[in-house]
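User: I'm writing a short methods note and want a consistent example. For Phage shock protein B, I'll paste the sequence; you return only the structure tokens, no commentary, since I'll be parsing the reply automatically.
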Amino acid sequence: MTHDTLILVAAGALFVAFLLGGLAGWLVLRAAAPAPEAAGPTPSDTAEAAQARAHAAALEAELHEARIEIEELRDYIERRRAREG
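Assistant:
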């Protein structure tokens, strides 16, 4: 075996080892990932979402009441200014 052949064989072996290492790393990451069916929403997630929706609806109702009060105050101020002026 000549010096050039030895270098080519060593380079080929190192390249194959590099590819096998990359494949092994990919397989480990793939095996550690959760299964697709296990990634769905859990009951606690759906309960939290329902709670958040209820909270948002309550906040919207409070905002609606605040808008009504603001309009009533504006009308009161306009009536007061019209009466004074």
